[in-house]
Amino acid sequence: NHSHSKWFILQFELNSASIVLALILGPIGESGLRSSLILNHNNYSILFQSTVSKVLLFLTLFSLLSPIVMAQLKKKKKTQE
Which of 29, 23, 27 is nearest to 47 (CA)? Predict the structure, then answer.
């Protein structure tokens, strides 16, 4: 739905460059993932075997969880004052 997309963009303050980049790179990444899984008989463990993939997974988790942790720390600091 168009209104949901608009809300999402406004809520998270996304700029148009990041959206265009996602629209271009998303299908490329999806195609690469599909090819890897086909070559490895749908074995998802192949995605976590290389050092590069482990670093990227860590960075992804860090970037997703750090705002949550920072908000909790900020809230805790505010209640202590």
Answer: 29
Give the dihedral of Cα atoms 29, 32, 37, 40; nearest 10 deg: -140
Calculate the alpha carbon distances from 14 to 4, 5, 18, 21 in Å: 14, 11, 7, 12
Residue pLDDT, tens place only, 4-50:
878 888 888 878 888 889 899 999 999 999 999 999 999 999 888 99
Give the pTM. Answer: 0.59
- First-to-final CA distance of the chain: 44
